[in-house]
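Agenda item 2: zinc ion complex prediction
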Amino acid sequence: MSRSIRGSVSPATHRWGDLWLKTRWLLPVVGPPVEHAWLQVKRGRLHAFGQWPPRQHGQQFVDLEDAVVTAGFVNAHTHLEFSDCQSPFDTTGGLPDWIEQVIDWRRRQPAGTRELAVHRGLAESAEAGVVAVGEIATTVPAGADLHALQAGPRLRIFQEVLGLAPVCPGVTPAAVATARRDIQRLAQAGFAPGLSPHAPYSTQWPTGRWALATARHLHSLTSTAGGHRKLVPLAMHLAESEDEQEFLELQSGRFRQLFDSLGVWPTTPPRLATTADWISLLARADRGLIVHGTHLPSDRLAWARLQRHRQRLAIAVCPRTTQALAGRLPPLADFLNAGIRVCLGTDGRGSNPDLSIRAEATCLINAGLISPEQALTMTTVNAAWGLGFDRTTGFLAPGRPADLVVLRPEVAPTTAASATAAVFAPDTHVTATLRGGRLIAGSLE
Ligand SMILES: [Zn+2]
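Presented output:
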């Protein structure tokens, strides 16, 4: 018989990410659930798993008893700079009013607070079972301790770029120059880079083309070890509000009022593009991640473009933020009926009360828009694909990094369906999060 222990992972074992675990349920996400499962983690990778008992004997198992073990969650969209916010900004005035509050808040933030907030956000994410995050970064402060950010969840850092100032041929806009400097620093520090033209109302078309060209350039510089260049995706907020559509058509309305009041509306009309054109641009990247897309189904041209390119795109929905800012939930039925790959994000604490990706899923499950099985797919394998992390994380299989979460349901599930439902039950607790076989939050006790 294999010896069973609880909560005694020796430091030597843990250093190498070597573990034997025993659990009531193992949900690999890709592949059938296993009841009464064992799994072996070797040098940070999932070496093997199966139904109890294993053929080999003599190992010391960490017995997780009635736990559910599944792939660690992937939060496809965050803005961790807001992670110190105790409560979201007022959302009752919709997106333009919310943006005005954010700009005012940013101006009042003392230097250095953004870096601390990002650290807190990553810690909160890991405690919520998250092993990878799609983070939108604005500026990277000089002297930022980038290496300290690498101890928690995997990071895909989308460097944001925006601006309405006139774009002159042959002259690099200041915002683009800053973004270029920051993305190069992040890539050199070992982070997985991406780019994010912010939104169609704030970003000019030439800047979007620059972002695509830069993503391709960064892709060409990546190592070809193993025969695969690393992906450099693009992410963009699209069709988030009805005001956005009015602004793009007429350059008037609440966004125009916002830009006028901020004094950023240029004397030369900005070179804006349609939502459909932005979708085409995203589809030309290694991966294109559409954030929100709440009003896409009512934009005939954009919807047709999305369907045409759906194999190259994913949509990250942030249900609680959309409910707060748009007064409705994302159009999940439209997306799913059209065969669009959907993933979930929490957005930031500027528009959401916490960074719980499970709470986002529960919001959609309770509204009857998705099943727990769909929620598990959206918060793992789909989101990993959207972030270009699909070779690394998002499902459990031998040989892949042991990125997993241990969940303890209030009542032991007796069927695979109830085990999957328990993943998103409010009374289920995340007790451990492992990235590459190492604990990044919680414990195995
Ligand atoms: Zn966002």
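Discussion summary: Residues 205-221 form the longest helix (17 residues).
Owner for follow-up: CH.
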